[in-house]
Amino acid sequence: MASSNSLMYSLFQRSLEDLIKGIRLQLHGDSSFISKSLDEIRREIKLTDLSTKSIALQKLSYLAALHGVDMSWAAFHAVEVVSSSRFGDKRIGYHAIAQSFNDQTPVLLLITNQLRKDLNSSNEYEVSLALECLSRVGTDDLARDLTSEVFTLLGSSKAFVRKKAIGVVLRVFDKYPDAVKVCFKRLVENLESSDQHILSAVVGVFCELTTKDPRSYLPLAPEFYKILVDSRNTWVLIKVLKVFAKLASIEPRLAKKVADPICEHMRRNVGKSLLFECIRTVVSGLSDQETALKLAVAKIRDFLVDDDPNLKYLGLHALSIVAPKHLWAVLENKEAVVKALSDEDPNVKLEALHLLMAMVNEDNVSEISRILMNYALKSGPLFCNEVIGSVLLACSRNSYEIVVDFDWYLSLLGEMARIPHCQRGQEIGHQLIDIGMRVKDARPELVRISRALLIDPALLGNQSLHPILSAAAWASGEYVEFSKTSYDIAEALLQPRTSLLPPSIRAIYIHSTFKVLVFSLKAYFSAQESTSSPLVEESTSSVSSPENAFTYKSISSLVNMIELGLCSLSGTLDVEVQERAKNVLGFTGMIKHKIAEEVTAQGSEIEASRAVAFMEDVFSEELCPVSATAQEKFPLPDGLELKENLEDLQEICGEFLKPVVESNSNLFSSSEKISFSVARLRISDQQEASSSSSHPPESASLLAEHRKRHGMYYLSSQKSDDHNDSNGNNNTLNEYPPANEISADSFNPKKKMNQSKPRPVVVKLDEGDDFKMKPDASSNDEPLSRAIQTALMGKGKEKEREKDNHERSLDPGIKEQSSRKEKKTKKKNGEKSSKHRSRRRSDKDAIAAKPVEIVDFLL
């Protein structure tokens, strides 16, 4: 019955071609058809007929490759198909194994004998199938068990088999390093083969091996040199050049030896691929050879002027390799590099941009920046922002070390903001603030640039440029003393168009306006104290000071403008903007009332001056840059739980976080408007202490009880609650909203860098400001490297060394004691033998770490 079913399935079984046609005919999705096909495959693959089973496995492999169907359940069936005597079935089985097997496949070891059988087959195509399968799914066990078969095939008389066996060596060496002792000598012998296919395969294997540890293969330099001189096969020469590029970087004498043959290849009329590989070998490994380097640079110039964008990109790439050591090569081709910025290929433009940034220094930063900004104007969004980002990164590197004239650089930042497609608002805004904090001499120009940015209407409607406006608003208020007229700054901050900004940016505008007001009032009262002139007469006096000097009329005009600009914001829905606007309005109302009193009211003038001095002291502390690693230098306080799960904090503190609706609700019911009185302002320490201690006793008791019950969430501190209150007051002053992004309209370079101007002092932080990656020490103690060094130095010499080290490590007295008391003191002998093993291991490591001697042909 089973045989009849098998016959029926084989007669009416659909082939892979039928499956593909059926999938293509599905109009409403192929998921249902694939599921039906899988059910059919499951039934067919369980049959005993290998032909039916192989066709089912072939269809399953197709569905797994193109539609992601899981075929791990058919692993055992693939092993069965591989055992078929028919070559077609065997090929389907090996393909399925290579596609679906991995190191965790349970039935992987079942194919060991089948692989051995096929590797010893007289049919070279069956041997080829087995080698390809071993190269894909070979594990440690398979590599160990089949090393002898691979060794035999390395000397096969059939070139088709031998070149595939050479390729499998990579997988075998990687999984089983001890195979080097068996196969390495025969692998090296294939370097002398006259067959170009075999030679190409073996050179490709060594090209891959040298990428891991090139020092181990220095003794093979004579064989590679012979191939470099004698061979005319392009692909063989390319691989040999890759090998020499790695070997020459660790052995200078080798670079001198191979320079002449490489130059001969460059002078010949060779293909572009071989010519470029010669150039890359010279610029990467032979850059100290002057003759070869000049010839390579000349060939690079031919690549740069070629119309083919691929060759132009390769030329730029070669220049980028040689640029770190020999910048003159890039400077000689500066015109070609600049011209490449206008190429249609985006990869060519990016490579040219990277080369230009490699040439930037103190002398040419202005010229290169001007060239790049002109190209940014004419480019699309992607390349435009790449150009701007590269200039920003190059100029800000190492605390702006290549920037001499910061006035020029600040004007350049302002011009960047007006470039169309600019999306680097976050970086530009950060640098505006950073320069203001680090370079004191640049603050006047920073304020001028900031005001120009604030009044530019094109920046307000672009969300990507809002971080620049945020930084400009902050700098205008923070360094308002460097402005020509503070009235213009306040006017720019309060313009009606600021309604287009988000609330977080408008809050910064309002706070900067408050700083401008406080500074102007301070300057006004200082002038009054110095001149001792009446308030009324000062309304007709003129501004005589070069700095900001104010009359009664100008101060009144400034206060009226601020009140008019902020009046509409006092009723906004955003609480941050509303609170800051009402604070400024309350302060202006208080000051305006006091400065308008008669001259006879000397007390009011003194009180107003004291109020302004108090507010001026709040902003007098200068902000300085902070190292990015400053927080890491402070130890974690005891009792602070940073990793504690706080999800249940709401439940724990729920009863204490309820709003108190008692006597506190009547505190502000008497007045709806905000009113201030200078008479109530107290600056003395005693009055501050008395006001800070007047907390409601109920809230204080709740806080104490909560601290007692949930002490793990509090810092252990000896400071009083008054200190917490003062911290709270300070936080309201320093709480600036985050910035966002930018773009603009036109670019007209207006300011040139002043070369004669001395470089101002730039505040630099400690070494912790820059993150330095520690290079990983590469060890030469890998099993494969040690095995190859052992094979190259000779087995006899290595055995002699091990024997001498063993005898040197064993003391004669210890040997006598160990022979007499071997049965009595096993523990002591174990300890001594472990010591001997450690000594032998250290000697072997020293031998492995010792550089391989270079053969005499290099001398």
TrEMBL record:
<protein>
    <recommendedName>
        <fullName>AP-3 complex subunit delta</fullName>
    </recommendedName>
</protein>
<dbReference type="InterPro" id="IPR017105">
    <property type="entry name" value="AP3_complex_dsu"/>
</dbReference>
<comment type="function">
    <text>Part of the AP-3 complex, an adaptor-related complex which seems to be clathrin-associated. The complex is associated with the Golgi region as well as more peripheral structures. It facilitates the budding of vesicles from the Golgi membrane and may be directly involved in trafficking to the vacuole. It also function in maintaining the identity of lytic vacuoles and in regulating the transition between storage and lytic vacuoles.</text>
</comment>
<comment type="subunit">
    <text>Adaptor protein complex 3 (AP-3) is a heterotetramer.</text>
</comment>
<dbReference type="InterPro" id="IPR016024">
    <property type="entry name" value="ARM-type_fold"/>
</dbReference>
<dbReference type="InterPro" id="IPR011989">
    <property type="entry name" value="ARM-like"/>
</dbReference>
<feature type="compositionally biased region" description="Basic and acidic residues">
    <location>
        <begin position="764"/>
        <end position="775"/>
    </location>
</feature>
<feature type="compositionally biased region" description="Basic and acidic residues">
    <location>
        <begin position="795"/>
        <end position="820"/>
    </location>
</feature>
<keyword id="KW-0333">Golgi apparatus</keyword>
<keyword id="KW-0653">Protein transport</keyword>
<feature type="region of interest" description="Disordered">
    <location>
        <begin position="717"/>
        <end position="850"/>
    </location>
</feature>
<dbReference type="Pfam" id="PF01602">
    <property type="entry name" value="Adaptin_N"/>
</dbReference>
<comment type="similarity">
    <text>Belongs to the adaptor complexes large subunit family.</text>
</comment>
<feature type="domain" description="Clathrin/coatomer adaptor adaptin-like N-terminal">
    <location>
        <begin position="32"/>
        <end position="587"/>
    </location>
</feature>
<keyword id="KW-0813">Transport</keyword>
<dbReference type="InterPro" id="IPR002553">
    <property type="entry name" value="Clathrin/coatomer_adapt-like_N"/>
</dbReference>
